[in-house]
Design brief:
The chain is mainly α and about 300 residues long. It has 14 helices and 2 strands; from the N terminus they run ααααααααββαααααα. Helix 6 runs antiparallel to helix 7.
Length: about 300
């Protein structure tokens, strides 16, 4: 929901455009599909788990914790996917082909994240895919559904020919705006995998920390946050972010403290929540700044 809000506000701030109907359709599709992929991920972990004791299985997996039946879980997944697909297809009909292509690609990645012989969540690619798709693609589409196609990108299918029109400058700017979300979302996945490293080896989940080791994973985790702040400074310098964001740079002080605590004790039970707080604090502050800037303007 945070990347969705950032993209929607960016469309209003940058292009002065906002479509309530498109906003509600994307909200329904996005929220339903996000919950569906979470349910699929829990179901996949539940079915493939080798280690069936401890926090990761007995508490962290909702199916086990709440004693849910497999039938009810599968029914819920089907219902959520149906809502996501109907709302998403309706949004495509009201916009253009690019929404269908990006939405379809996002659906495929969402399924591949938890399903198939080698799901993304069991490879060292989880951080990359979750960061790019939840941090960039969602922000891009959240802005795109509000604006005219020629302001960002458009696809026209005419007489068997496909014409692609891309505003390279504006897409690059959207990507720059997305970098803090990309990195902080990727860090949630990275922190999760660091906490679960030993258990993942038992369950044959070969995530990024398994490949590069805990020390390198923690260094990557820390530096990703600092790169987010460098990006914010660049955005201010080129005039994309309002100057109001300057005080937001001070959020690095509590973030650094939480980073240090997590790096000393990588625990799903005790310190993982701090990583989520980092994500919320940095990105919610940006939402607040965009909102104030829009109101003042």
């Amino acid at each position: 929901m945070i990347p969705f809000a950032i993209g929607s506000l960016y469309a209003l701030y940058r292009f002065d455009q906002f479509d309530v109907g498109h906003f509600l359709l994307m909200l329904a599709s996005l929220l339903a599909f996000d919950m569906a992929t979470t349910a699929i991920n829990n179901y996949g972990d539940y079915k493939k788990a080798v280690k069936r004791n401890g926090y990761g299985y007995e508490v962290h997996n909702a199916i086990v914790q709440y004693k849910l039946s497999e039938r009810s879980v599968l029914l819920l997944i089907f219902l959520l996917l149906s809502i996501a697909m109907v709302a998403g297809f309706t949004l495509f009909l009201k916009t253009n082909l690019l929404v269908l292509l990006l939405g379809g690609l996002s659906f495929l990645v969402g399924f591949w994240y938890s399903l198939g012989p080698i799901p993304i969540s069991r490879m060292p690619l989880g951080e990359l895919f979750s960061g790019l798709f939840m941090g960039f693609v969602i922000i891009f589409m959240s802005a795109y559904v509000h604006v005219e196609p020629d302001q960002l990108a458009g696809i026209i299918w005419e007489n068997g020919h496909v014409y692609l029109d891309v505003n390279v400058k504006e897409i690059l700017l959207v990507f720059l705006v997305s970098i803090p979300a990309i990195l902080t979302i990727g860090n949630i996945m990275l922190a999760n995998n660091i906490c679960d490293k030993d258990e993942d080896i038992v369950n044959k989940r070969y995530t990024l920390p398994v490949y590069i080791g805990k020390k390198s994973a923690l260094a990557l985790f820390r530096n990703a946050y600092y790169l987010s702040y460098v990006d914010l400074i660049v955005l201010i310098a080129i005039g994309i972010h309002p100057l109001l964001i300057l005080p937001i740079l001070l959020t690095i002080i509590p973030l650094r403290k939480r980073i240090a605590v997590f790096m000393q004790d990588c625990s799903k039970e005790r310190t993982f929540g701090l990583v989520v707080k980092n994500f919320i604090q940095l990105n919610a502050a940006r939402i607040l700044v965009f909102t104030v800037a829009i109101v003042l303007r």
